[in-house]
Amino acid sequence: MSHYRIAVFASGEGSNFQTLVDAGKAGSLGGAQVELLVCDKPEARVVKRARDAGIPVHLFTPKSYPSREAYEAEIVEQLEALNIELVVLAGYMRLLTSVMVDKYAGRLINIHPSLLPSFPGTNAIQQALDYGVKVTGATVHFVDGGMDTGSIIAQQSVEIMPEASVDSLAKEIHSIEQELYPRVVSWFAEGRVRLNDRQVTILPYK
Ligand code: GRF
User: Is 112 a catalytic residue?
Assistant: First the structure.
């Protein structure tokens, strides 16, 4: 049986990318495999991770295009050529335009290091500490045209201890992300995710 094909978009460290690649190779991603990394930063650690894992990379420099739409159109061509079924953002530090969002509506997800709708945007972990909340976490959501505003697919919480720092909390959130994201990708690969009027339902196994 042919597998379920995903592309990961990332700009930085790539720990979520690595987890998804490893889970795919180990057969624990519901039959999904990472087929492509899309990255806007040639020097990012995630590029080396992809090369080491033998995953093709679509690397681009945003400044050399006339518009965001122009580089996204090129990305869409790549995704279509590889028959990508799900686009997975994992630390991709750019807002998407309607070129990507419309084309991949319902097949485009992101992971964010807070319990949305609290603390969208950048520095979510710092925002949570500054606010003084006692619980935060990670959210996987569909991507729409806004900043972290799409329908929520899954969340996992983490308690904030009095001595927590941005670094210690980031570490804890990363570790729950690395459990949560593969689980959600498997749901997609198994055809179990339904989106209806902003409400997401995960169907039970048949
Ligand atoms: C993660 O914390 C994710 O929630 C956020 O960016 C971070 C990416 O980390 N969107 P990594 O590059 O996967 O290590």
Answer: yes
pLDDT computed for residue 180 by the predictor: 98
Q: Which two tokens stand for residue 118?
A: 């609290």
pTM: 0.97
The position carrying tokens 């485009």 is: 108
Pick from 41, 126, 174 the residue to mutate for probing ligand 1's pocket: most ligand atoms within 8 Å of its CB. Answer: 174
User: Within 10 A of 169 (CB to CB), how many other CB atoms are there?
Assistant: 19
For residue 195, give the 3-state DSSP assignment: strand
Q: Which residue's alpha carbon is nearest to atom 6 within ligand 1?
A: 91
Q: What is the pLDDT of residue 1?
A: 52
Query: Are 179 and 88 in contact, with CB atoms under 8 Å apart?
Result: no
More confident residue, 1 or 108: 108
* CB neighbour list of residue 175: distance below 8 Å, 6 or more residues apart: none
